[in-house]
Predict the structure.
Amino acid sequence: MEIKLQKLLFPDKERYKNYDRLFFKSIQSVYEEEKGCLAIARYNVCDFMTYLNALSVKKWKQYTGIKEVFLRLDIEGSFNLSVSGHHLEKEGTESKKVYFSEKYDCQKRQILELPLPDMEETLLSFEVNTLSDCFIYSGEYYTNIEEKALNHVVLSIATTTFQKEDFIKKNLEMIRKELLTEEDIGENIYVHVIDNGRTLERSEIESEHIFYHPNKNVGGSGGFSRGMLESIHQTPKATHVLLMDDDVEILSESIRRTYVLLTLLKEEYEDWFISGAMLRYEHMDEFWEDVGYMCPEGYQFTMKGHRNLNKKRNILYIEEYDTTVENAYAGWWYCCIPTHVIEESGYALPLFVRGDDTEYSLRNQAQFITMNGICVWHMGFTTKFNYFMEYYQTFRNLLIMEACNKGKMQGKILNYFMGIFLSEVLQFNYQAAEFFLDAVRDYLKGPEYIEEEKCQERLTEMSKRNAVLEDVRNFKDINIDFNTVYSWDARNIFDSLLYKLTFNGQVFWPKKWLRQGPAVIAYDTFYNPQRQCLKESVVSVNPYTKTGEIRHLDKQKFKNVMREYRMVMKEYQKKHKQVNQKYYEKRKYLVSEEFWKQYLEIEKYQ
């Protein structure tokens, strides 16, 4: 039985035209919409060793055990065709080896099929060197396998949305046209739209295999838990649940490759999650993350770094990077989880937003399959920093996650975030510093606090305390150089000593001795103590949005927040062991179907 592993992709949509190097590399090639083909000029080279079109041959063989691979092209013209294998050498240089090269003269459009050489390479690709004008109408890599060897797969896509109507409708239309109409895969894909904002119309969403579920606004954890629950109880029952954010642009091919991978997957990988890469919506050729890592202090970062996908070396680096490490996690912008894992492990912790996907990965000690071309383009990155989200929601949830999983990192997490707390105090950001203390206070209230469904009320109330940034053009007398906001100033030894002894002029230091004029600093966690040393004020700016706020040294506010800090830390030391035990004892209930049905009031929201 023939199984298509990967289709050849073309830049056939308007947004792709400026990013054709994700699809092919060529100077004189263009996608012709009217003919529906890629046109390549005479005496030109078109290389398909790209992020979306190279074949992940090593991973296909590792995870599925396929033996033979074939290339099929619907093509017209005279050309030389070469097939190459690629990997990185130990020193990080790219290795390319040509395994096959042949001349073809296709005077009329015809189907060209050829078996590909067996190879121990990371990626496989082909290259067309034209001797006349050439036209490629379609292409695919495929294999042959006995039908009885295929896994039965019912893939449920669960997407949670909150007032992102345009993205949802566009993605659903793509799924209807490009996936549900396909033989086999179209019969085995279902979509559950969880509408936390309840702003969509059922009649606009629902159709065959696509279901609409109005939901309470219980954040990502509540929306995705509802999606898991609906997937398990659908008919036919899902074998896998693909969790996907709402503010993403997706390729039907990413879902297709995910489905095919699952149908061929070896038994030894049946518990593994498939984690799709997050690419940057604003710059479509920028890789952001597919698997992340949480360090013992609670700081989370991408394993592979942010990389431009136009470079072959970066494509190979992303593909070869080993993610099988402890404390790895996958974000739920595109994460496929086996249903039996959900049934055994339960649903998300009710954390509203931030950390639910990380906790789920760590709870299950998940291992991940990633593959070039399985990806989404995600909205928003560097401009989204938010004090409430970063300092309250993230910190509080990390403390709760550690308590529920009897982790040993809670002390390090506390110390790390309290370090950021002190840095904000030193930058006169007293209001933001309060979020850290609120996070500890609310964690200490125990599991009853997160059992009570008041997420949206708390979010609305506490978000009002976020800094309101204004247009920096309003700061007429302040010279702001956006290019130096994130540059580091070398420490002066004498200044450094005074900075520490006086808490940046907030104790033991007369106001008249403070340096005049605000220091220009970054609005996020970038910390540059020398620049703000002994200044009477700072202007905190966001260079991406050209906004900022002015903050002044206030000795009374400093005293108040430090007094609260000492009280909160004293309470934490006194209670945290008992509180952790309560969370741990309640952990299974908090992720159970019984809890989530009650929490979501499912009978009310149908």
Notes: The radius of gyration is 27 Å.
